[in-house]
Amino acid sequence: MDDVAPHLDDHVQPFQVEALGVSGRVVRLGPALAAVIDAHDYPSPVRDLLGQTVALAAALASALKYDGVFTLQMQGDGPAGLMMADVTSAGGIRAYARIDAGRLADDPGAGAPVPALLGSGHMAFTVDQGPQTERYQGITELTGATMADCAHAYFRQSEQLETAIMLAARGDGPAAAGALMIQRLPFSPEQSEEDAAEAWRRAVILMSSLTASELLDPALATDRLLYRLYHQDGIRVTAGRPLFQSCRCTRERVERTLASFPRVEVEDMAENGTVNVTCEFCRKEYLFDEDQVAALYAE
After folding, report:
1. Residue 208 to residues 17, 39, 299, Cα–Cα distance (Å)
2. Would residue 195 be called left, alpha or beta, if left means φ above 0 and alpha means ψ between -120 and 50 degrees?
3. What are φ and ψ of residue 95, in 5° steps?
4. What secondary structure, in 3-state letters, does 147-200 show?
5. What would the pLDDT profile of 1-50 be if each residue is shown by its tens digit?
6. Which terminus of the chain has fewer CB atoms gathered within 10 Å of its CB, N or C?
7. Count of Cβ atoms closer than 10 Å to residue 207 Cβ
8. In terms of CATH, what superfamily is 251-296?
9. Domain segments of the chain as ranges
10. Cα distance between residue 77 and residue 120, in whole Å
11. What is the CA radius of gyration of the chain?
12. Minimal CA–CA distance to 281: which of 38, 48, 81?
């Protein structure tokens, strides 16, 4: 029998702790994240931060009811000035980072990866449910040293439920990432505001006892992880959902994109008579010779 290293299952697991008045979800990513990240030659700090971006996007998306695509985008003036991840309502994930290798420091500072890599900029959440629906978007400045700090800043500034988030990713070795997010539910009329606040503090303290290594440990099953944290308060899990790598690029979409540009601009892209378009997400190449370029504008 082959000795295969264990890996995290790719899934999101919702749960509730009714005694503490919280709902939450755990995201754990292994092979699906590797399929997303390994198509690129990212340095370790970028792999780490992009893994956290994907885990955060999956956690946020799982808290919404939508039929389409949820996109999380971080954009700044740093050497890794763009990080983007999206999650379909079916659980398909994809992501990429745009980096300036010449500006990327050898050691960007693991303690403050957001200002070191992304710099100053903004975080944007977008829900796109198709051309016949209105897109929802939330934007906030990148505030804090870590990706979790930025997410907390967004929720503090928004009108959404009080939220606590933990993120972890592995930049070296096999790709892995995880997220644990809890949100405070409205307290019942039978409960005092002081008791509800104390229950929320307890939920956050228990969440904070989880370590990054535990969140990324494939030997620690998700249900066992949650049991360790909240078993004294009566945790209840609901149906989970798998996550998987899925790029939505197709030749037809690339053709439509090229045809939206003036023909002379597309022809100027050609090298040795061939236009080469590479998907930023999965790195798949689409080649168009002179006749195929001409066919784009035939009508």
Report:
1. 16, 33, 60
2. alpha
3. -165, 160
4. HHHHHHHHHHHCCCCCEEEEEEEECCCCCEEEEEEEEECCCCCCCCHHHHHHHH
5. 344 456 789 999 999 999 999 999 999 999 999 999 998 989 999 999 99
6. N
7. 18
8. HSP33 redox switch-like (3.90.1280.10)
9. 11-245, 251-296
10. 6
11. 21
12. 38
Nearest in space to 175 (alpha carbons), one of 2, 88, 26, 53: 53
What are the C-alpha distances in Å from 30 to residues 34, 93, 110, 232? 6, 12, 21, 29
For every residue of the chain, DSSP letters joined together read: ---PPP----EEEEEEEGGGTEEEEEEEESHHHHHHHTTS---HHHHHHHHHHHHHHHHHHHTS--SSEEEEEEEESSTT-EEEEEEETT-EEEEEEE--TTT--SS--TT-HIIIII-SEEEEEEEE--TTSPPEEEEEE--SSSHHHHHHHHHHHSSS--EEEEEEEE-SSS-EEEEEEEEEPPPPTTS-HHHHHHHHHHHHHHHHT--HHHHT-TTS-HHHHHHHHHGGG-EEE---EE-EE-----HHHHHHHHHTS-HHHHHHT-BTTBEEEE-TTT--EEEE-HHHHHHHT--
d(CA 245, CA 167): 19
CATH architecture, domain 11-245: 3-Layer(bab) Sandwich (3.55)
pTM value surpassing 0.85: yes
What pLDDT does residue 107 have? 53
- For residue 144, give both structure tokens: 């804090």
- Tens-place pLDDT, residues 132-146: 777 788 889 999 999
Tell me, rounded to whole angstroms, the distance of Cα 39 from its chain centroid. Answer: 16
Q: Which of 219, 127, 163, 214 is nearest to 22 (CA)?
A: 163
Residue-wise pLDDT tens digits, 42-77: 999 999 999 999 999 999 999 988 899 999 999 999
| Dist CA 175 CA 51 (whole Å) | 8
- Matching residue, tokens 């709902």: 23
